[in-house]
Amino acid sequence: MIKTFSKKPGGESAQTISCNLCGSSSHRRAFSVSGANWVKCRSCGLVYQNPQPVAIELVKRYDDEYFAYEVENEASFYNLARLGLDDIGFNSRRSEAKKRGKFLDVGCATGYLLNEVSKSGWPVEGVEICEESARYASKRGGFPVYTKPLEQLALDSGKYGVVHLSHVIEHLNDPDGFFREVYRLLAPGGYFIVTTPNIDGFQSRLTGRRWRSAIPDHLFLFSRKTLGSLALKTGFSTILIKTWGGLAAGLAPIPVKRAADCLVKPFGVGDVMIMLLQKPDIC
């Protein structure tokens, strides 16, 4: 099992926030792990870290240690991303999406996925706030990789056929603002692909505060309902949602794990979810 990268340096500035999804300031305590506290919105059910580190502090976490982690695990991460794309039938939409514009991978790490996508002649770009990872990715494929947060880049509106986001949205201070920026960047009919842990999954319910995704780096923990609500609020249509992962390796004997992995998929209670969203074709 790949250990999830998590780093919480001491002395970070933090801020108390309202719910990013509905704006409510009413919440109840959910759980605490390693000095980080999560609450659950009483209005919409979103689970989020509160208080949470400010954005300028979070960027500092993605340093040489993070780069080494990404290089070590890049093949495994690419394979997981590819399986997720297969799950939503991405290949059947590839030609259509390619005609609409470029492929943008936000949180592209070492650029493995972008390099594979670019082999088909599809123009690609990446966003990666770890500067060493960004340099590595750009050198690997010769494509642009930006090192500022997406919302600060002022990229051209309507020029992208796909924006891909794998295990990134849970790390951001403002998911709502991020979704709105992606909406602006996509061409009409363009696709937004989001992969993130599923707090309503079987594994989360089983392990509680010991859940492997309950780590200080995860500022927001979405369910199918709350992520779907965010998509609707920001103008996207939800094409489909798939989940996978019944039990993490080591939690149970291999036959039990395999059975759990098979059972969670049809019921939508896997540990990780991928959502295929689309910007309306006529805006």
What report would you give on this structure?
The protein is α/β, with parallel strands linked by helices and 283 residues long. Helix content is 35%, strand content 24%. The chain contains nine helices and 13 strands. It has helices at 55-59, 64-87, 90-100, 112-118, 131-141, 175-185, 202-207, 224-233, 254-267, and strands at residues 14-15, 27-33, 36-41, 47-49, 52-53, 102-106, 124-127, 145-146, 160-166, 186-197, 220-221, 237-244, 272-278. A seven-stranded mixed beta sheet has the order 8-7-6-9-10-13-12, sandwiched between helices. Strands 2-3-4-11 form a four-stranded antiparallel beta sheet, with no helix packed on it. β3 and β4 (47-49) form a beta hairpin. The longest helix is centred in the N-terminal third of the chain and has 24 residues, at 64-87. The termini are far apart. The model has no long low-confidence stretch (mean pLDDT 94).
Mind summarizing the main beta sheet?
A: 7 strands, mixed
Query: Roughly how many Å is the radius of gyration?
Result: 18 Å
Q: Runs with pLDDT <50, length 5+?
A: none
Q: Tell me the strand order in the biggest sheet.
A: 8-7-6-9-10-13-12
Distance between the termini: 43 Å
Described by the principal axes of the CA atoms, the overall outline is globular
Q: How many beta strands in the DSSP annotation?
A: 13
**Helix-strand sequence:** EEEEEHHHEHEHEEHEHEHEHE
Mean pLDDT: 94
Structural class category: alpha/beta
Continuous helix count: 9
